[in-house]
Amino acid sequence: MQVDFGRTSSDYAKHRAGFPEAFFERLVREGLLRPGVRAVDLGTGTGTVARGLARHGGTVKALDVSAPMLEAARRLATEAGLRIDFQQAPAETTGLPSGAFDLVVAGQCWHWFDRPAAAREAARLLAPGGRLVIAHFDWLPLPGNVVEATEALIDTFNPGTAAPYVLLGQSVGLYPLWFRDLGEAGYTALESFTFDVPTPYTHEAWRGRIRASAKVGASLPPEEVARLDAALAALLAERFPREPLVIPHRVFALMATPPLPA
């Protein structure tokens, strides 16, 4: 599946719910997020993680390969009154200085990377005592709920393919393979946390959220996206008419200390 989130940057910026404040508060309690922390946000997309880090006083560099996504991220940061250094660069070869950062975060994106290369690059970026955080904020398809019905509809328009996060754990919002990734890369002190967050969406916002998905706006032709959107509107009106929809989501985060330099 050829995925280009830049094609759907407008819907992504407007309709995808970002990581909840409780996620950043948890990083604060873990001692990872504090005023002055030097942070890198890999695969920033429209900057939801970068803005949260900056709101809590971090000095943030945020990277992505997509120019349209970075344009949306810059606009949202400016509207929020936040100073973030956005740069176009891949997670595997950031071009940033070695040992210059206290925190590296990959939010909702680790599955898109060359994961061994990204793990090595994060280790290179981190100063002694620094930490890598891999985080997800996933919707949960449960029997009979709107997520399950929506995913079934998506599969009728884009069958026979799955985004990497679906194959690797998105259906339950947990990612055991990331422990193996970091263990094989020599990381230590692996710790994780998870909690659930019900997230409200209007019908319009849920349709926008779906258009911003890998299997929809980021990969289907525009005419197919429009057809799917119309079908989803009809499905919501018939089966889930109450607004707002309450979409179950799960936060998952894995924290780790990089290996010592050889």
TrEMBL record:
<dbReference type="InterPro" id="IPR051052">
    <property type="entry name" value="Diverse_substrate_MTase"/>
</dbReference>
<dbReference type="GO" id="GO:0032259">
    <property type="term" value="P:methylation"/>
</dbReference>
<protein>
    <submittedName>
        <fullName>Class I SAM-dependent methyltransferase</fullName>
    </submittedName>
</protein>
<dbReference type="InterPro" id="IPR013216">
    <property type="entry name" value="Methyltransf_11"/>
</dbReference>
<dbReference type="Pfam" id="PF08241">
    <property type="entry name" value="Methyltransf_11"/>
</dbReference>
<dbReference type="InterPro" id="IPR029063">
    <property type="entry name" value="SAM-dependent_MTases_sf"/>
</dbReference>
<feature type="domain" description="Methyltransferase type 11">
    <location>
        <begin position="40"/>
        <end position="134"/>
    </location>
</feature>
<dbReference type="GO" id="GO:0008757">
    <property type="term" value="F:S-adenosylmethionine-dependent methyltransferase activity"/>
</dbReference>
<keyword id="KW-0808">Transferase</keyword>
<comment type="similarity">
    <text>Belongs to the methyltransferase superfamily.</text>
</comment>
<keyword id="KW-0489">Methyltransferase</keyword>
